[in-house]
Amino acid sequence: MSRTLRTAAFALACLVSVVVLFAPSAGSAGAVPHLDKLVHAAVFGLLVVTGVLRLGRPRAVLLAAVGYAVLSEVVQHVALPGRSGDPTDVVADVAGALLGLLLLRRLRRRQA
Q1: What digits encode the pLDDT tens for the residues 8-47?
Q2: Residues in CB range of 77: below 8 A, 6 or more apart
């Protein structure tokens, strides 16, 4: 995969995360039980996979993702009307980040 494509993928993942984490609430919470946790996990899995592909350094990318997970919930709680920080979202974020890292490692082992 070219460096340009890896950069574009990571930039897109970052943009998606900003929209999902900081946009006003859509108000459809509860329509599908725990869907928000699945979305959080998927966003952070995507961030870690594309981050490692672009930047390398899996541990640094994972630590940055964990920090971003905590920071995003603090920002939601303190600064965004209609949003609230949720510690279980951080758990979903970290789980997604770890799953993304594990998936990437598994795919790389298959290619080797």
Answers
A1: 999 999 999 999 999 877 665 567 778 889 999 999 999 9
A2: 83, 84, 85
